[in-house]
Amino acid sequence: MLLELTGLSKRFGPVEVLSDVDLAIDAGEVCALVGDNGAGKSTLVKCVAGIHGIDGGAITVDGEARHITGPRDAAALGIEVVYQDLALCDNLDVVENLFLGREKMRGMMLDDDAMEQLAAETLSSLAVRTIRNLRQPVASLSGGQRQTVAIAKAVLWNSRLVILDEPTAALGVAQTRQVLELIRRLADQGLAVLYISHNLNDVFAVADRIAALYLGRMAAVLDAADATQSQVVELITSGRSGTLGLGADTNGART
Amino acid sequence: MSTTAQANDAETRPGAGTEPGAVRAVADHVRGYWAEVRSGEVGALPAVAGIIALCVFFGISQPVFLSVGNLANLFGQGAAVACIAMGLVFVLVIGEIDLSAGFASGVCAAIMAVILTDWGMPWPLAIAAAIATGVVIGLLLGTLVVKLGIPSFVVTLAAFLAFQGIVLMILEEGSNITIHNETVKAVAGGNLERWQGWTLLVLTIAAYAALQLNRWRRRVARSLVHEPLAVVVARVASLGALLTATVFLLNLERSANPQIISLTGVPVVIVLLGVLFAVWTFVLHRTRFGRHLYAVGGNREAAVRAGVNVDRVRIAAFVICSGMAAIGGIVAASRAASVDPNTGGSNVLLLSVGAAVIGGASLFGGKGTVRAALLGGAVVAIINNGMGLMGLSAGVRFGVTGAVLLLAAGVDAMSRGRGKLFGRH
Ligand SMILES: Nc1ncnc2c1ncn2[C@@H]1O[C@H](COP(=O)(O)OP(=O)(O)OP(=O)(O)O)[C@@H](O)[C@H]1O
Ligand SMILES: [Mg+2]
Questions:
Q1: Where in the cell is it found (chain B) (predicted)?
Q2: Are B377 and B82 within 8 A, CB to CB?
């Protein structure tokens, strides 16, 4: 397993936002994380990304328990997060955004040509054909193109796990499909992908497995091939579906 | 600066360089540039157009405007404002403002004058002290804005008042200090020998050509999208021609009474502006720090997430701004051969902000170049010089400069809106 969360807990003051969450993600698969608003999805992501410390449980990468205390730690382990908003600088061009914070240098000078070449190679390895001019300011890109840049930024660094928090929430139908195809390609190239979405059609379109959070607890992790949309909806809204999900004894016990 | 994909094809196809391919490549390049302009990336265009229009207008109404003597004069008149404007670009790029830059230059100039004239210390010490004062001022302003989170508008407005008071205190209630040191006076008043001017010209053009061709060659070698060679050559040639003409004119005799005193050569202040321009352009466009300045101005949150040390970058911008204000103050003191309570006061700040914005820096942050400050500075200097020659009162000049600033800010706001409107999906 590339990433394994065992018994993960996170409290904000007295509120337990994540309690005893287990989740495992392997290389080459897309794992979707679903759950209602406030279920704790973004919090889980931030724990893995090192933005929040954890209050209990363990994060294991490649079978080794790790303390992730900041975004740099996460990046060093090959974990990259694509946030839905605020990820790009509108006034910088595509290449400048891709390398922001990790610029390639030649002595004390920026090596813009090397960065541009690497950017072109990365985009073509992801079969991205929608962005033709790499020197175009990001402000002039469409929403889907921007999201593509954000995702490419995450995979540029030999990352092994890419986490996408609602990457398609603001996109139209065609652009959503572009991004979903890109997500699928990432997994096919051997990366692990954790994909957060509220749209179950999108989830079923790309996910290999579906993990449903309910009020900070992991209700169930299903194989997408065996699951139905109505099952997942029940897990999201009530934490259980038939024999699946949180037992009656624990269900609703949370204050 | 980008070319279209077709331009690239035409240039890299075997046998390119034969006329039809090359011509089409250039035509595509021009079309690409025009498309950028129309999408709101107006860049230096308004400032250049303004300079040409103003020169035509003043040249016709006041023929003396186009005399070599007045050309040399223009540089001296505009240099202090241009220095301050170059520094302001850094603060504008990160989306802040420094309203105290004018009086900061006054404080630094006053300190230099005291050390030089009252204490009789050597000039390098006086100049170093002035620049160090600027740096400390910048650190102070930057720290207040960044660490305490007070809006830069408020911090620098307070500093604007305080520095005005400090100048008065240093100058002991309004007396003025004369500067006798010849070296310091030469900063704004001196001229190069003719041969020095020519040598510098050759070196400058050679360096520029080498940089441009080298860059072009590297991009071709990596088979990246590149401009047609003809465009690179044309750019080097036109800049070279412009500089050659300038040096030629400035090397002519421009004294009213050549028998009594001869006046020739490139003003030293042009060299100073050129060096500052080259240094800061390098910093802004070729270093990691420069890239991070734009990132902070474009989207601070994204810069934070990308691991940029945003606080340090922002403070550094204020330090550069005040440091450049110090240099502007030195130039102003050198030109006037004295420092008085009005040094750096009056309209200096507004002209400097105006210069940066007219040149294309954005008050909304994220946008601006050092070149913009120089071009905008030229517009401002020409307006003041030309209207002075026309005998217009200071009141009219203030009014017109204010109107031009408003116009430039309007173009800024509109091009921003246009970029949003047509650029975004
Ligand atoms: N920094 C914080 N301090 C205190 N409480 C927080 C903090 N961040 C999140 N929470 C709380 O944790 C709970 C889970 O929030 P989280 O953002 O993880 O939900 P989510 O599943 O991502 O929801 P959504 O689908 O709306 O994005 C919410 O009740 C939220 O109020
Ligand atoms: Mg969320």
A1: Cell membrane
A2: yes
Give which of B36, B55, B47, B40 is closest to B89, Cα–Cα.
B47
- Domain boundaries in chain B? 1-39, 40-190+267-418
The stretch B250-268 carries a mean pLDDT of 89
Chain A contact for B69, CB < 8 A? no
Q: Contact B339/B166 with Cβ under 8 angstroms?
A: no
ipTM of the complex: 0.84
Whole-structure pTM value: 0.86
Ligand nearest to the CA of A35: 1
Tens-place pLDDT, residues A158-199: 789 999 998 888 788 888 888 899 999 999 989 999 999 999
Q: What residue spans of A127-249 are helical by DSSP H?
A: 143-155, 173-188, 200-206, 229-238
Q: Tell me if residue B73 falls in helix, strand or coil.
A: helix
Q: In 3D, which of B180, B154, B176, B155 has the Cα closest to residue B106?
A: B176
Long-range contacts of A40-43 (CB under 8 A, 24+ apart): A40/A10, A40/A213, A40/A215, A40/A216, A41/A165, A41/A196, A41/A213, A42/A165, A42/A196, A43/A10, A43/A17, A43/A18
B425, pLDDT greater than 50: no
**Does the beta carbon of A12 lie inside 6 Å of ligand 1?**
yes
Q: How far is CA B306 from CA A82, A97, A100, B310, B341, in A?
A: 11, 9, 6, 10, 45
- Give pLDDT < 50 ranges for chain A: 248-255
Report CB contact under 8 Å: A101, B308: yes
Contact B251, B170 (CB under 8 A): no
Helix, coil or strand: residue A120: helix
Given 3-state DSSP classes, what are the helix, strand and coil percentages for chain A, each rounded to the nearest 5?
A: 35, 30, 40
Distance B248 CA to ligand 2 centre (A): 66
Please give the distance, rounded to the nearest whole angstrom, from the Cα atom of residue A3 to the centre of ligand 2.
Answer: 20
β pairing state of A56-61 and A64-66: antiparallel
CB B295 within 8 A of CB B92: no
The CA distance from B215 to B109, in Å, is 40
Q: Which amino acid is at B373?
A: A
Contact list in B for residue A120 (CB cut-off 8 A) is 224
CATH topology of domain B40-190+267-418: ABC transporter involved in vitamin B12 uptake, BtuC (1.10.3470)
* Closest atom of ligand 1 to CA, residue A216: 14
pLDDT at A254: 42
- Average pLDDT of span B157-183: 91
Report the number of secondary-structure helices (H) and strands (E) in chain A. Answer: 8, 14
Comparing C-alpha atoms, which of B275, B268, B252, B388 is closest to residue B324? B275
Which residues in chain B have their CB less than 8 angstroms from residue A105's CB? 288
Q: Which ligand is nearest to the CA of A216?
A: 1
